[in-house]
Each structure stands twice: as C-alpha cells, then as structure tokens.
C-alpha cells in the first residue's frame, strides 16, 4: 500500500509539473502577443500624433499669413444737410433749464454740472417722526 501511495504521489507531482510547464508556455505566448499589440498601438499613436502636429502647424502658419495681410482702414464719412426745417414750433424755446444746460455743455464738449433743486431740502425731524404721518390707526 505504501508503494501505491508513492506511485500515486509521483504521478501527481509529474502531472503538476507538466501542468506548470504547459501554463508557463501559454503565458509566454500570451504575453508575447500582448507585447506585439502594444508596440503596434504605440506606433499608430505616434504616427497620429505626428500627423496632428503637422496639421496644426500648417493651420497656424496659414492663420499668421492671413493676419499679416489684414490692414486697418479708417474711413472718414462726412455728410451735409441739404434741407433745413424752418417751422415756428422749432423757433420757440423747447428746452427747460436742465435741458438747456445739457445742450450747451454738449456744444462745448464738457460734462454738464449736476442740477440743483429749486427749493431747499428740509432737515430730518430729530424725533424720527414723519411730517403728515399720523400712524396706522387713528383714534379720536
């Protein structure tokens, strides 16, 4: 019986060694295929990067050439009034004091002074009451 156990153990170890050898060979084949695919992908990505770089360089060169051709052109446009409207409505004064001040300032080319009130502003009540305000409810 010991002899049978030794033989079974020997066959088991031999089968395990063969299985390990087969799996090692399979792993080598798999990793070699994976490495070859990785190198293919690396080459393809390098070619694509070179192609994109060349396209962007040509586009930038064309853009710079167009920008160099562009010029700034100034045109002065002058027009004359051929028709004058002369009606009595426009002869009368049509500006109030603020409008007249603004129009004169615009003719001179300066900013108009801020308007001044016609009356003095009353000072606030020290008690905090409002004049004319009797509250929310009134009782007699």
**Rg from alpha-carbon coordinates:** 49 Å
Which bin fits the share of residues in helices? 55-70%
Q: Taking all residues together, what is the mean pLDDT? A: 77
Task: Please work out how many helical segments DSSP would assign.
Answer: 3
Shape type: elongated
The arrangement of helices and strands along the chain is: HHH
Number of strands: 0
Q: Please state the structural category.
A: mainly alpha
General description of the model:
Helices cover 60% and strands 0% of the residues. It is built from three helices and no strands. The termini are far apart.
Task: Briefly say what this structure is.
Helices cover 60% and strands 0% of the residues.
């Amino acid at each position: 019986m010991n002899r049978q156990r030794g033989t079974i153990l020997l066959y088991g170890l031999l089968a395990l060694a063969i299985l390990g050898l087969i799996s090692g060979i399979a792993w080598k084949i798999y990793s070699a295929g994976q490495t070859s695919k990785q190198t293919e992908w690396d080459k393809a990505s390098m070619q694509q990067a070179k192609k994109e770089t060349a396209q962007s360089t040509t586009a930038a060169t064309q853009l710079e050439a167009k920008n160099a051709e562009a010029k700034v052109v100034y045109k002065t446009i002058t027009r004359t009034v051929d028709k004058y409207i002369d009606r009595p409505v426009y002869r009368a004064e049509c500006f109030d004091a603020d409008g007249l001040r603004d129009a004169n300032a615009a003719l001179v080319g300066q900013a108009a002074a801020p308007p001044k009130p016609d009356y003095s502003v009353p000072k606030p009540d020290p008690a905090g009451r409002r004049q004319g305000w009797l509250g929310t409810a009134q009782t007699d």
